[in-house]
Amino acid sequence: MPTSSSPAPQPTGGRQARWQPHNDRRRERIVTALIELIEETPMGVEVPMQQITERSGLSKSVVYRQFSGRDELDRRTRTAIGDRFTDDIDIALDISEGSIRVILRRTIAAVVDWIDSHPRLYDFLRHGPALGDPGDVDAVSSLKDRIAGRTRLLVSGLAGVVGVVDEAAADTMTFAIVSMTEATVSRWARDRDRAMGRDELVAELAGYAWSVLDGVARAHRLTLDPDEPLLAALARLSSVDTAP
């Protein structure tokens, strides 16, 4: 029992809570170091822990205490890389500005530029899971799910006004567009003898994505104008849909 002059012992959980922000900053520092090193290391070569500790400026013992093992560090790093990717996609997917065609091109251009500018990071995503993923799912697969969720703001809005109100149908349509785009851009980025330039690729993929949306609209006897501002199109089609 503590005496009246002795401070009461603090619960372990309280001490952990106080140290949590400090440890979070250390983990972020280590993950950032690994991302930088992946960008500088030949494709497919694992970055040694020694290099990670040196780049992060932390001692080896500190680095090892922040993670349960190399697997957790790699998973957290893949999650951080995916966050950077989706942050760029979020900016491009601003549905408040631009027509359907402009938004599609802007978003696909963001995908093309990111994958082409960070081939080593994208390759790293392909070779293991992110945080919270099953061990047999690579981070690119979960990343496509995340991007599809963000893209659904565009697709489900249109799907609702053209009659595809079923969430599963809207999700399937979105994922089909995202998967087509990712697979095509990845193949193009790996090709040393590119038969198609960046702008041409963006235009082609935007055209394919538009064809999917347009096909759904026509199946429901509605006509979409790809050059009409998206918000105006949604307002117009919604008023038509609700008109007596």
Describe the protein's architecture and organization.
By secondary structure, the chain is mostly helical. The protein has two domains: 14-66, Arc Repressor Mutant, subunit A (Orthogonal Bundle); 83-242, Tetracycline Repressor, domain 2 (Orthogonal Bundle), CATH 1.10.357. Helix content is 71%, strand content 0%. The protein is built from ten helices and no strands. It has helices at 12-40, 49-56, 60-65, 70-92, 100-117, 119-126, 139-161, 167-190, 198-219, 230-242. The model is unreliable at 1-11 (pLDDT under 50). Residues 24-85 form the HTH tetR-type domain. Keywords: DNA-binding, Transcription, Transcription regulation.
N-to-C order of helices and strands: HHHHHHHHHH
CATH class of the largest domain: Mainly Alpha
Low-confidence stretches: 1-11
Q: Can you count the helices?
A: 10
Average pLDDT, all residues: 84
Distance between the termini: 78 Å
Structural category: mainly alpha
3D shape: elongated
Q: Write down the CATH topology of the largest domain.
A: Tetracycline Repressor, domain 2
CATH architecture of the largest domain: Orthogonal Bundle
Radius of gyration: 23 Å
- Could you say how many structural domains there are in total? 2
Share of helix among residues?
Answer: over 70%
Largest sheet: none
**What is the strand tally?**
0
Strand content: under 5%
